[in-house]
Amino acid sequence: MPDLLLELRSEEIPARMQRKAAGDLRKMLTDGLVEAGLTYEAAREYWTPRRLTLDIRGLNARSKDIHEDIKGPSTSAPEQAVQGFLRKAGLSSIAEAHVHSDPKKGDFYVAHISKPGRAAEEIIAGLVPDIIRTFPWPKSMRWGPASAKPGSLRWVRPLQSILCTFGPETEEPVVVDFEIDGIRSGNITYGHRFHAPGEITVRRFDDYVSKLEAAKVVLDADRRKEIILADARNLAFANGLDLVEDEGLLEEVSGLVEWPVVLMGEFEEAFLAIPAEVIRLTIRANQKCFVTRPQGEGEALSSRFILTANIEASDGGKEIAHGNGKVVRARLSDALYFWKTDQGDLPDLVELEASAEKFGLDLKKPLDQRMARLDHLNVTFHAKLGTQGERVERIARLAQELAPIVALSISPLEEEMSPKATEGVADPRETTLSGLPAISPSRGEITALARRAAVLAKADLTTEVVGEFPELQGTMGRKYALLQGEHASVAAAIEEHYKPQGPSDYVPSDPVSVAVALADKLVTLTGFWFVNEKPTSSGDPFALRRAALGSIRLVLENQLRLQLVECVRKGLSLYLGPEIEIMGDDAKSSDLLSFFHDRLKVYLRDQGARHDLIDAVITPQSDDLLQIVRRVEALGSFLDTEDGKNLLAGTKRAANILAAEEKKKTAVAETVEPALFRQDAEKSLFAAVNQAEKQAGEAIQNQDFSAAMLALSVLREPVDSFFEHVLVNDEDLSVRANRLALLARIRTATGQVADFSKIAG
Prior knowledge:
Distance between the termini: 50 Å
Shape: flat
Largest sheet: 5 strands, antiparallel
Number of domains: 5
């Protein structure tokens, strides 16, 4: 079967657009071919900085003839129905239709449609120009004299040539002929613009690839990546260094060259005083180069970097490496200036005293100065939510509330506390957001550290380095915190409070980091809920889904016992005032809790949990995320046993009978009366329900959900026996009502653990 080769060659396509553009081209053309009635065996896209290429194998030479009968309305149907039939069938008048008769339905119209197949070349010649004109570039341009005309061609960069050949391997392929804005398709392409700029005549894909390779063009982007990575590793190793690998940079660099040539540049060792992250970002952002480190020396960098040229220079690349080195040195000089400036005093310290007093800052410390400036400048966080300074104060207050809870969950100290240390322990009736006894003053250090970390968490936003490289926010805050002697946990929390930022990002475990990270996310969520800026199905501009998922991972992966509703109300109180702690904002709290439930369901499903078990466990009031997960796990394990499967069947049967009778308004006794029992099976079930309900309730109180399931398992046999020997709908109305009440007790006992009616099976 014939193969199709298509190349669209232009001036340089931005690297960030190439992969998607090639995929878009493949999808648009293959979808069009299939819609036109053609089939193909395989299609693969390729790209370089100057071309998008498609290789489509096993394409039909011709589309099939189409014969179709379209049934229409009755011949007596109104005109509106007739016109609709004509539009559907593609007929210009009813005279083109045929009339068929049916003994039962009478006469009706039928359109007999016959469409002859078309040659693949004809279909391709019609599709490609349309694809080029409607191609979904994020940005495109017009060029040349034709650009002044309405409707002139737009492309990401000036389109220079189109290659399009079609034919079987055993025959000479033909050029699929078409033209768009003066560019006619052909069988000509061009090699490397410096090494081999002349014409190359192409027949089909295999000789196209080999001829391009001979003309210094590596067509396959993945192969270019392999060449760059292997040569960079080897060059670094030959110089006693290790390459600091960077997949994102490798992808970008492979899109900047058609013939990769790896070289090594160098800068002065004095620049190594700059933090490694800053050096790496400076070189990456400005020169698209890789950094290296001495072999076996951890995070320390060397003064040599790896660059990728697009030509084989006659001097072996010395001038190219030298030129890149000059630019790198200039950029590192800027970075060094930023680094040193951030460690010095600000010129307007007198103006910052009020802000320093408000947050308890020490203006002798550089990072404290930056936080004071952030507050003093009244930098807006969000028009409806106030300034960054107000945001920081909210985070700090909530972090203080959360820190004791986190400390109890992550690093409980009861066994470490001496009798004297427990003298200040609060009354057990005073509870925290976790529902656990309030922490004693002897544990106050973690609370103080959490507030300090929260106050400094956003300070690096006003530093010179973060101004130049926003992606280093948090990272630079940690470095500056350590330089001014902050506690290690405070420094870590400044960096880690942004974590986790995605499903694969790591979750902090230091109690101070967890408290501040959770406070930051909850303040963000409650704030945007407060001003009704919630995510929609089409957008989430403030990344609130990510904040909720991050909060969930912080809670679950650190096994925090947290009452989420109380946390939400505390967060809302930071915007509404302390009265919210008493009255609450039930609508917003409930809505945000429901949002957390939705995110939790997504998280658990990604972890492999059954959706029906999640739905069975979660109620609108469920606010202990860790408890929900443990319930789901215990329920899943229980239902994998024979006792679990049988109890589920019996419980669902009881619930169905009860629901049906309640729908009919059949009387159900308020309590079970043993005196009305007539059979031993009733007595056995009643005793088992009493036992199971009591033991399951106690196990749930102790957070032992496996024990709760074990307690319910004793119901399996008495439930089976009850349905085998007892007729629920007894003629005696009192007996019937009593038996229905017994079924209700089964529902209540199992409902302590989960809503069994929502479980499949």
